[in-house]
Hints:
11% strand; alpha/beta
Amino acid sequence: xxxxxGPPPALKEHATPPRALILSADDLGYDPxxxxxxxxxxxxxxxxxxxLLVNTPWSEEAARQSQGLAIGLHLNLDRGPxxxxxxxxxxxxxxxxxxxxxxxxxxxDVVEAEVFxxxxxxxxxxxxxxxxxxxxxxxxxxxxxxEGLARVARRAGLPVRSIDTAMRDALRALGVATNDAxxxxxxxxxxxxxxxxxxxxxxxPTEGVTEWMCxxxxxxxxxxxxxxxxxxxxxxxxxxxxSREALERAGLRPTDxxxxxxx
Length: 263
């Protein structure tokens, strides 16, 4: 496991690096249909990174199918059961799962323990260290979640996704590496259409590490998700030859969060 005894690794003093693009997909292991499409986007399209949910019935199979790919942890404090054995009963539903609406009330130590447990499971399932951590529904926008996550990420030497300047500054103040810019959303309409892909590429900063968050996949087979048909639109965008050609013309080869290595 990445978390070793002794002092945490030293974080490099932040300096704006040459331009790099991380095209990272959330929700590996969420549902078999989503997983199939996501892996197709990684292997046949331009998506370069993904993050794994470790507390679903399909996590183990998704991890097995992702061998050889750049995979991080998709920290989940919103749905399904906790991974850690001591997650407080008062923050669990009648069925024993997370209560996403109460995440802002979680004590920092509780978050830290659950991050530690989920990261450990991710590494066991993957058989290798996670590349980074991001958070389902961006729940690290809550200060105590961010602090608990940062404690573990700092000791593990793992980058964490930031979604805005305030979060970016907070993570760096806590000694955690993070991306310099972020683009992505999931709403009523599919976010990554060919038109938005082209516009985002045109607007890409000339320096620094930018993450494009995405949600490619096939239709969910066993779960209900408000972002369903939209995933197939995103998948088609990332599989289209024009997307790869546009990146090549821009001199870009999408990478993963290991570009932000802290050691």
